């Protein structure tokens, strides 16, 4: 027992020393020469692995951006000072999935445990961005002084407009789309702030609400044992329940990721909200939902993928098969840069620590399978048919009525792909705002996370070109709605869903004309 205690103590001390050593590197400047080498490394890896690097920027312009950046590096910089220079260049490639990550501070086990027993600081709110202003969109915990509609003027005595101006160059979307940035910034600015100023116990805030100025501190609150136990029990009950599994209960948002409702008394309208294409138990959900639709008198289906950042290709392929009545090919064969590019895909990092010894044994089999999965056609390399690319038949319980799809600037990746496919097939009428994800596809799928040799910054690079099987628009834009409705700031803060209301009114008019 004594040896076990001593060994455990040794592990704790070693862990703390390791964390301290790692974090100390963030304060050590890297020489200008080595930073320029990191720029070259970044450019080389992008050219080697990214299958559509020059989709939205020419090679000449991107080369110029990297060369110009190297010329500005004339003195040693700390890793995150270098991040502030390199990240905007990566953003100019205009690939929403492609982003550089700052040098993140590691936490000791004790710090992690303490954070788990505390409520968040800025993460406890949802925000909305209006140009260079930040407003509180939701305050689910009803924390004082932060009413919905409160405008945040300063944080830590720094004007909000200065923070947003600083963060703006590193927030990008797919192509020439501009609708995604405000949604992305609303989600990400707290993490940018934390990366810059650290994990704070409290922070000074200056706000205005109904013409009243206030200055106060928001604090991390401790979670009581009773509260923690109650939350854990509720989460366990919901996530383990049949409904919780099928509807994919999310313990962070405390809501279901997918749901089907019949909002009218006569059940002629069905409303399906999909917050994320997580893939978890999705087949069962769609099977049950479309069986229910078949039995119902529903003539209209409203598919809501607003604020859906994407997810599983398999899930959207399966969902699409319930929305059409003819055979279809959902996506084109996925292009990669070479026969060996998939060898770089994250493998061990995606496997739990306990399973890594087994993963090491099976790694040669994985490499062989990867090598055999690539084919060459017209001097380009593609992944071989794995079922997703094949011609598919519609499901027996497919929906034959009229379909409306709700989209906005935060509809990204997989949600843009299914919206694009439905629009191209003229199978749905799209309402809302141009999607943040491109109409003609994106680069995502498997990733290779490259660590820059000297600054140690991380750059995950998508290895697959994923495109819906459609007539491409070549516009470099998102999926455009058939009818555009962009809510005002006041409508958003008042939770007035003008886009859904418009569809309901249209259906009422259609029914009245019959």
UniProtKB/TrEMBL annotation:
What GO biological process terms does the UniProt entry carry, in alphabetical order?
proteolysis; signal transduction
Annotated Pfam families = Peptidase_S41 (PF03572)
Q: Which ranges carry the Tail specific protease domain?
A: 239-486
UniProt GO cellular component terms? outer membrane-bounded periplasmic space
Q: Please state what the protein is called.
A: Tail specific protease domain-containing protein
What PROSITE patterns does the record point to?
Answer: PROKAR_LIPOPROTEIN
In the record, what terms sit under GO molecular function? endopeptidase activity; serine-type peptidase activity
């Amino acid at each position: 027992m004594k040896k076990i205690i001593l060994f455990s103590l040794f592990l704790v001390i070693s862990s703390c020393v390791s964390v301290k050593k790692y974090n100390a590197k963030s304060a050590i400047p890297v020489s200008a020469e080595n930073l320029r080498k990191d720029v070259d490394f970044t450019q080389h890896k992008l050219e080697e692995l990214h299958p559509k690097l020059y989709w939205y920027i020419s090679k000449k312009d991107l080369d110029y951006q990297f060369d110009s950046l190297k010329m500005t590096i004339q003195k040693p910089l700390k890793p995150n000072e270098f991040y502030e220079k390199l990240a905007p260049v990566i953003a100019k490639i205009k690939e929403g999935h492609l982003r550089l990550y700052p040098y993140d501070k590691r936490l000791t086990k004790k710090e992690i445990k303490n954070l788990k027993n505390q409520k968040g600081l800025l993460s406890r709110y949802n925000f909305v961005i209006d140009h260079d202003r930040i407003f509180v969109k939701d305050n689910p915990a009803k924390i004082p002084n932060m009413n919905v509609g409160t405008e945040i003027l300063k944080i830590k005595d720094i004007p909000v407009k200065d923070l947003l101006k600083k963060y703006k160059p590193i927030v990008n979307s797919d192509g020439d789309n501009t609708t995604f940035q405000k949604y992305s910034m609303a989600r990400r600015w707290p993490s940018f702030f934390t990366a810059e100023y650290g994990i704070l116990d409290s922070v000074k805030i200056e706000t205005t609400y109904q013409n009243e100025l206030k200055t106060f501190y928001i604090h991390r609150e401790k979670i009581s044992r009773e509260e923690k136990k109650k939350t854990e029990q509720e989460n366990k009950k919901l996530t383990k329940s049949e409904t919780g599994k099928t509807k994919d209960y999310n313990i962070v948002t405390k809501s279901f990721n997918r749901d089907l409702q019949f909002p009218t008394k006569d059940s002629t309208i069905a409303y399906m909200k999909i917050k994320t294409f997580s893939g978890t138990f999705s087949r069962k959900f769609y099977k049950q939902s479309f069986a229910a639709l078949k039995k119902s008198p529903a003539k209209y289906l409203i598919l809501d993928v607003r604020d859906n950042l994407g997810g599983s290709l398999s899930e959207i392929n399966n969902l699409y098969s319930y929305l059409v009545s003819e055979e279809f090919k959902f996506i084109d064969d996925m292009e990669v840069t070479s026969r060996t590019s998939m060898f770089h895909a994250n493998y061990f990092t995606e496997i739990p620590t306990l399973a890594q010894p087994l993963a090491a044994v099976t790694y040669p089999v994985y490499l062989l399978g990867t090598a055999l999965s690539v084919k060459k056609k017209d001097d380009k390399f593609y992944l071989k048919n794995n079922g997703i690319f094949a011609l598919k038949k519609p499901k027996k319980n497919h929906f034959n009525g009229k379909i409306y799809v709700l989209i906005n600037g935060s509809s990204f990746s997989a949600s843009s792909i299914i919206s694009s496919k439905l629009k191209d097939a003229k199978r749905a009428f799209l309402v809302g705002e141009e999607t943040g994800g491109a109409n003609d596809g994106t680069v995502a799928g498997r990733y290779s996370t490259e660590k820059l040799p000297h600054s140690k910054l991380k750059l995950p690079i998508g290895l697959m070109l994923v495109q819906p099987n459609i007539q491409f628009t070549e516009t470099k834009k998102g999926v455009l709605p058939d009818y555009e409705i962009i809510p005002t700031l006041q409508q958003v803060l008042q939770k007035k869903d003008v886009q859904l209301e418009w569809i309901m009114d249209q259906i009422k008019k259609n029914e009245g004309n019959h």
